[in-house]
Amino acid sequence: METTVGQDLLNKKLSLALAESCTGGLITSRLTDIPGSSNYLCGSIVCYSNEVKIQQIGVDRDIIREHGAVSQETAIAMAIGIRQKFKTSIGVGVTGIAGPGGATSEKPVGLVYLAIDGPSGHQCYKHQFIGHRTEIKFRASQAALDMIRHYVHGLTLQEDI
Fold first, then answer.
1. pLDDT tens across 83-111, in order?
2. pLDDT, tens digit, for every residue of 23-34?
3. Domains and CATH numbers, the chain
4. Which residue in 134, 131, 27 sits closest to 79, CA to CA?
5. Is residue 113 predicted with pLDDT exceeding 50?
6. With the C-alpha atoms ordered 150, 117, 24, 22, is the resulting torsion angle positive or negative?
7. Residue-wise pLDDT tens digits, 128-144
8. Angstrom distance (rounded) from CA 31 to CA 35
9. Angle 2-11/133-152 helices, nearest 10 degrees?
């Protein structure tokens, strides 16, 4: 998947930056496993703490206070913020609960929000993954790569490539 995403970004002459929370840099790691990824991947920030989301990505403290770190609003703010910080074509924000702790009844383990921001606006997707911590992180990274691929082709995740 990362090879296809990289080729798509390269073909469309698009650049990418990521703000990763619950995936801990896994998406970036997968992308940098591909030779030549520096031609489209500008960088990423693992913003695991709220303070890093606020200070490094530019997420408004009130968004986190009002909606929580794991929310659609925070994911979108992360995508917008990382895109602005790195001045890229596309920004991706990922926030969620990989578990086993940190869950509530409203926000269970496996809940992940993936957001993307680019020239055609932003999109956010809510996922509920099942599995242990590493499985949730991998599934979230796979879904994020799929989201990027769809976005590059001008589609939402509900549309086929």
1. 999 999 999 999 999 999 998 999 999 99
2. 999 999 999 999
3. 2-152 (3.90.950.20)
4. 27
5. yes
6. negative
7. 999 999 999 999 999 99
8. 9
9. 30
Using alpha carbons only, give the angle 27, 31, 36 rounded to the nearest 5 degrees: 165
Quick one: tokens of 127?
């996922």
Q: Please answer whether residues 15 and 88 qualify as being in contact, where contact means their C-beta atoms are separated by less than 8 angstroms.
A: yes
Cβ atoms 40, 3 nearer than 8 A? no
Contacts by residues 111-115 (CB-CB < 8 Å, ≥ 24 positions apart): 111/70, 112/22, 112/136, 112/140, 112/143, 113/70, 113/71, 113/72, 113/74, 113/75, 114/75, 114/140, 114/143, 114/144, 114/147, 115/72, 115/75, 115/76, 115/78, 115/79
CA-CA distance, 21 to 36, in Å (whole number)? 25
- What letter represents residue 3's amino acid? T
Q: What is the chain's Cα-based Rg?
A: 14
Beta carbons of 87 and 21 less than 8 angstroms apart: no
pTM, two decimal places: 0.96
